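Weekly modeling sync, notes
Attendees: AB, CL, MP (scribe)

Item 1: holo prediction request
CL wants a bound-state model with molybdenum atom before deciding which constructs to order. AB pointed out that an apo prediction alone won't tell us much about the pocket. Agreed to run with the ligand included and paste results into these notes for async review.

Input as submitted:
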Amino acid sequence: MALTRREFLKNSAASAAAAAIGVSLFANQSVFASETVWHKSVCRYCGVGCGVMLGVEGGKPVAVKGDTKNTINKGLLCVKGFYLHKVITGKDRLLKPLIRKNDKLVEASWDEAMELVAAKFKESIEANGPDSVAFYGSGQAETEETYVANKLFKGHIGTNNMEGNPRLCMASAVGGYLTTFGADEPVGSYDDLDHAEMFFLIGSNTAESHPVLYDRLVARKKANPSTKIVAIDPRKTPTNKIIDLHLQVKPGYDLAVMHAIAKVLIEEGYTDEKFISDSVNFSNGKEPITYEEYKTFLKKFTPEYASEQAGIPAEDIVKAAKLFGQTSRVVSMWTMGVNQRIAGVWLNNLIHNLHLLTGKLGKPGSDSLSLTGQPNACGGVREGGGLCHLLPAHRKVAKEAHRQQIADIWNVPVTNIQPKPGKHTMAMFDAISKGEIKNLYVMCTNPAHSLPNLNKYLQGMKDCFMVVAESFHPTETSKIADVVLPAAFWGEKEGVYGCTERRSQYMPKALKPQGEARWDADILIDLAKRLGHGKNFEHFKSAEDIWNEYLKCTKGKDMDLTGAPYSRLKEVRGLRWPVPSVDHPGTTHRFVEGDPLFPKDKAEGRRMYFYGKPDGKAVIFARPDKGPAEPVDAEYPIAMMTGRVLEHFHTSTMTGQVPQLVRAVPKPYVEVHPDDAKKIGLTDRGMAKVITRRGELELMVKLSDRPLPGNVFLPWHWPEKLSNLLTNDVFDPGSKEPEYKVCACKVEKA
Ligand SMILES: Nc1nc2c(c(=O)[nH]1)N[C@H]1C(S)=C(S)[C@@H](COP(=O)(O)OP(=O)(O)OC[C@H]3O[C@@H](n4cnc5c(=O)[nH]c(N)nc54)[C@H](O)[C@@H]3O)O[C@H]1N2
Ligand SMILES: Nc1nc2c(c(=O)[nH]1)N[C@H]1C(S)=C(S)[C@@H](COP(=O)(O)OP(=O)(O)OC[C@H]3O[C@@H](n4cnc5c(=O)[nH]c(N)nc54)[C@H](O)[C@@H]3O)O[C@H]1N2
Ligand code: SF4
Ligand SMILES: [Mo]
């Protein structure tokens, strides 16, 4: 036994080294002891949704390996997933409730902590009304957990002040899907990756942020060497290892490039005119326009104009456009370089435009595929309705019929659910700062680290009564909370995660929670009871009970999951909705034959029918080009970007528990181009001061040719140097998603 463990560790050290260069790995299955019990589950971290096997021995987590039967990752994992078992027993696990007494967090019993939470919530609701309290959740919470929070806050407390971190992440993608196709979430699925002949990556560091999908691109290229990959990103990233053409744009100036590509596609005759006339409308965002008017709008967007805007060669734009046009099967994928922008929704529209113009959509190997960041942003929050304007299963609070349907399932009068959307995330934290929201319940997210322009919001979070449900302590948020509730972690609770490709996957409870930690849903049910709403929560005796009630909400909706009860999910490697019955295999492509909702009668010979739109037609948008909210100027001459590294996840409360990951990238830094460093007098590993209009930070310099001269990049993972003291909290007016990706800074020698 001891020997096999040692062997296993040796094995993982080698694998970690491989992973550090951006390669995913197979766990060697032969080295595990025979008494290890393996539980089929889903990775805790990113939206790829890899299948994992959690190994348990004597009630303790001992290993994680890739699930070879899961078609998403076919047994591969990145280094984060590989070390996931170590997080469960990490040194900072919170084992007991904490409450603030004399300005110090001290241990308390569950009863004392929950009584305090309930009393404070009751007091505020009675004195100031339901909108004086709020819930802030997460795309990492299970669907069941978000469902219970939704039911409690929107249906029983009666406030729509319920948000989640997907607002900081996927809101612009949601806006793009809704406006273009009339329905949220991707048309195709990961299956398309195995058939594509070109990949178009926009603002996605796939190698570091979606490593196993990156691996699928590598595999595709190996199987079909003529496969081309084009990237639009202001930085060189490890993803560059496999790309054929890099459009290294100025941060925030890529909208014109997308229009220029569209213009070339039309001029060179690469459009699918039948598809356009069958399935596409045109709009300028305010009113319908004609195809001709759209072409007139594009006149300005010559490759030369876009080249001037974005600072890249016009020939490269033409090259990218021709590749897109000539290649029969194209998958576009994008992430935060697109979404976290003041023109995030528009840029999403412009990507969809290219697929609509060429008809490269809704068939194997072609898709306009937004990559999701978190493991359950799609499932719990977008589908589950965990934002201030939504109700479960793609419903809206503003629609009376939707409120009525959900009120019936929740067993409450429809008047309990307010028709007006609550406050979106940035407005919520603003209202907290102004004292308008007095009590906040935070679950599975760390806003005191992850919100932009933190100097503006931290004091409000300190001043309000803040309850934080957390698995680890201290975090930047738990540190300033009034009550911290120890939450059971991944592996210690059962539930469902829904990943990028509309796939819902089941996770078992394989372990007892550490210490006194409790399941988030159980804590919320406890709170519901203490607030006098027990009656409608008492029947939730298990995760399955909650899931079954949620399934009722999905019946007949575009995201029908009624064919995915636990009994089935436990057997299969997830199901892609719509899956309307237990004998339905799930859906790989929406809006086409094979999609159970495809209306053959209405479609009348059309290949695609976008049933979220009244006439079944998707929309090509003529959106103006728009640069960043804070362009560089004489005083702040450098563009500052923030983002991720492979080994860490977000605020590193989880990856920080794993020594191997900490050692790989131990401390915060700023990437500076050597030309800039020379001008400023900076040296590699020396210190620089990065200053924006909102704050300043001293950081170690990492000389790098990844950013271009005039740009710097800050990974934002570390609590000791909060990048978000510097970032801009201005947001896209459509999606309300903040522009984390670009602001102006100056850099000095520290
Ligand atoms: N290792 C790791 N993986 C993760 C996560 C993690 O924390 N760590 N988090 C998960 C989550 S929630 C998310 S949302 C995803 C994020 O996944 P990504 O979006 O891939 O990651 P980021 O590093 O935030 O940003 C991606 C790229 O956007 C580029 N960018 C910046 N400005 C612009 C611009 O103006 N235009 C364009 N075209 N690109 C720009 C940056 O140079 C960067 O390379 O990753 C998920 N996966
Ligand atoms: N500068 C900058 N800021 C950004 C971004 C950026 O690109 N740049 N990206 C934004 C994006 S895309 C995102 S998604 C957000 C993410 O921001 P956050 O959600 O704030 O980051 P996480 O570290 O994932 O926070 C999750 C928290 O939940 C805790 N936790 C883990 N498991 C459980 C559980 O089962 N129950 C409970 N109750 N708690 C648990 C973890 O310990 C952790 O503290 O950050 C945003 N902030
Ligand atoms: S790629 Fe994402 S889901 Fe897969 S193992 Fe890595 S972190 Fe987990
Ligand atoms: Mo995200």
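Recorded for review: The CA atoms of residues 92 and 388 lie 32 Å apart.
Action items: CL to compare against the apo run; MP to circulate these notes.
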